[in-house]
Amino acid sequence: MSLSLLHLPSLQKCSSPLSPYPSLPPCFHVPCSERRKPRAIWSTSISCCFPQQLQQSVVVVERNATSPSVLLSERKVVRFGLPSKGRMAADTLDLLKDCQLLVKQVNPRQYVAEIPQLSNLEVWFQRPKDIVRKLLAGDLDLGIVGFDTFSEYGLGNEDLIIVHNALGYGDCRLSLAIPNHGIFESINSVRELSQMPQWTAKPLRVATGFTHLGPKFMKDNGFLNVTFSIADGALEAAPAMGIADAILDLVSSGTTLKENNLKEIEGGVLLESQAILVARKKSLIEQKDVRDRTKEILERLEAHLRAVDQFTVTAHMRGSSAEEVAGRVRSQPSLSGLEGPTISPVFSKHNGKVTPDYHAIVICVPKKALYKSVQQLREIGGSGVLVSPLTYIFEEVTPRWKELLLKLQL
Length: 410
Ligand SMILES: Nc1ncnc2c1ncn2[C@@H]1O[C@H](COP(=O)(O)OP(=O)(O)OP(=O)(O)O)[C@@H](O)[C@H]1O
Ligand SMILES: O=P(O)(O)OC[C@H]1O[C@H](OP(=O)(O)OP(=O)(O)O)[C@H](O)[C@@H]1O
Description:
globular; transferase; binds adenosine-5'-triphosphate; ATP_PRibTrfase_cat; histidine biosynthesis; N-reg_PII/ATP_PRibTrfase_C; amino-acid biosynthesis
């Protein structure tokens, strides 16, 4: 196998048992002296589709025709990419921790870590866009990124598959925004913007970091004369600096737009985004360990996310039988639980006699409806109400896992 390397430390055989790259064959370990700050080894080329003059080709390692398959089949360890920094990093670790998947990182400058609960799996910390690139290149099997990053850098590639589409954090939208003053003061929709006479004599200048989604959106919305300037951050400054007429960027609270005298317009939202779990389809199909680890991560995530908005409520209620108590509980709309209440007799002792005069009822209640549910329980004779948080609600079969197997035809 031959490799030619550009811009990277040379790879050489390393026999240390403490290698931070356990899944690489020994002959491709990074030299010990360079381990403090490991760098990408199997990156591949990604090009911007627009504009041409900014097209970049970041070929870090060139593989010969046979190397990828040889390497992938040699790699037995499942690789899970997590955001190394930025907005998604802390929330991702928090969610995994809530699912009892504690990511153990030896030190913050090492980008590889492990989750002791998941055997034969390495966590690799990467920038979100690099997670998508490395999934495409086959250097990662699983990853957590924002849907926006997945859409921009995944380029619609069918080898990437969304395993969980709503991890409940990183909510934002990719939106077109224009100044709220000057020639744009009375412009309130994409349609009005596209019909402004100005764009016949000169192009509409859009600042964005979304070089794949941006041009497509503008074209689909009838903008014929558009130029793009590319920036990675602080895009909201571009109109005030005279660099752009509009920006295409992520919006969450809308504060940054407002503070920079910009506004969103009708029809200007390209996509709604939140954190998602993505997998490489080929890895799922070909490697049982990838499927097994994915299933466990997904089951924990689904069960936890299902539970997170619920309380479990226990109460005692006087009644002649479980059926009679059930009838009273079910008459209250807020007390129906997930499938119905669990009711069991409480054997209390009165005058030396043990009788099931009381029944204990257990239900799941949405957090938002807790107080209403407690009131309804009291109205039907409930007492001694106990409320506790829920960690997991496991279904008989995880719905998203079932869907995934169908999609993979497995
Ligand atoms: N204002 C926001 N509110 C909520 N989530 C956001 C917001 N901005 C970005 N995100 C989400 O967080 C992800 C990571 O954003 P972040 O700005 O941390 O990194 P990045 O800009 O994509 O990475 P890099 O710094 O490598 O360019 C985004 O892809 C998006 O999914
Ligand atoms: O609607 P808001 O809640 O105000 O958030 C929107 C801002 O958040 C993101 O930037 P970030 O803070 O990540 O910094 P960046 O501009 O350097 O990417 C995004 O690019 C917007 O600038």
